[in-house]
Amino acid sequence: MNLLLLRAEERLSSNIARVTDPRRLRHLHEVHRARRGDTLTVGIEEGGIGRATITGLTGHAVELALDELECAPPPPLPVHLLLALPRPRMLARTLENIAALGAKELTLLHTARVEKSFWQSPELSESRIRDHLVLGLEQARDTRLPRVGMAPRFRPFVEDELPALIEGRRALLAHPGQSVACPYRLPPGESVTLMIGPEGGFVDYEVERLQAAGFEGVHLGERILRVETAVVALLSRLF
Amino acid sequence: MNLLLLRAEERLSSNIARVTDPRRLRHLHEVHRARRGDTLTVGIEEGGIGRATITGLTGHAVELALDELECAPPPPLPVHLLLALPRPRMLARTLENIAALGAKELTLLHTARVEKSFWQSPELSESRIRDHLVLGLEQARDTRLPRVGMAPRFRPFVEDELPALIEGRRALLAHPGQSVACPYRLPPGESVTLMIGPEGGFVDYEVERLQAAGFEGVHLGERILRVETAVVALLSRLF
Q: Rounded distance, CA A73 to CA B222, Å?
């Protein structure tokens, strides 16, 4: 936790905040070994970043005196990620990585090789998704939560929603076996819609359908990577 | 498991192999739902890759008829990774990622912010390290195991071993706050020694010492990444 991310309601006045949830309290006690008088980096959700001093610390609450929180969070990546829904454990780490790397738009979608049962996972609840995203923001010292949408049906999504998502942007389809390697370092300001398949990849029909819709297929080399690894590899190569 | 990696002793003759260990048997049964007559991709440790047909399958053994295993494994990355020893759970995933991405030389080293207890972890046993590396190779369809060395004392390592490791190579020190961004896509054939710090980073003395030894400091932007994420981000950006 390189930044303590405060929800708006945890800020009691412009320069006082109180945190009471067990996860962050435990982290402050056990990992930071925090004491009254210590300073740490804090950020307000969707807002600025600055320093705070611990003015009170018990097993039930931490009270903080906030400096001006006037540093802007790091710039977001200009990408909308379209990710075939990964298996629940992989989803958790992938959400953390996506938030840490600075992507702000994510749509989880169904494809032929996504197991239907994944859509029933408790990991897809709003609060669990939020928890994982917050871990990524705390790690990377960011305050802006990614927005996460769901597209549980492939064809309606491709027909009805995709055209608007790729309009005026570069559309990349990461898929092993494509003839073009994923580019390095896109020109600053170029916006991208990046689609990443499930374990086992897209089926041929999906690749054809997406290429017809305007996606360029790109590969990351001969090596097949896990989804959580591929997301990091693609984002850090493109941006 | 995109490749079944066979140890030399599991190959009973040029075209017959038998696998009996519980982990891979369970994976073949439960994930692949393998049946007699199915074909799958196999590789011989440190050797070639090809297809095999399942000729026998019980709860205790899988027997395989091997085709010619004449495909070469994917090319290795020209990098020697020097990694401050991560906490055990993070080490496991990092080893998997390193193997999947194709790095073949790894030295785990002690630095000021590595907790001494990490060196006592059972995850550092030869067999546990090997297990994690094999998972990465199985994922990426590679057959060549990375070599893993240990440097449990920083100064003697820097003084006695480092000069030979960076001789004739580019030496990069990944550390937040450096003035130069990590380069993208090194010229083909350029060999790199890449040093990555622990959670909390290197201390100033270490950065100075390594820069004096010839390392260029590079950063990955404002965002602080977990070690396992940073390793993937750095390797996929550099190569």
A: 9
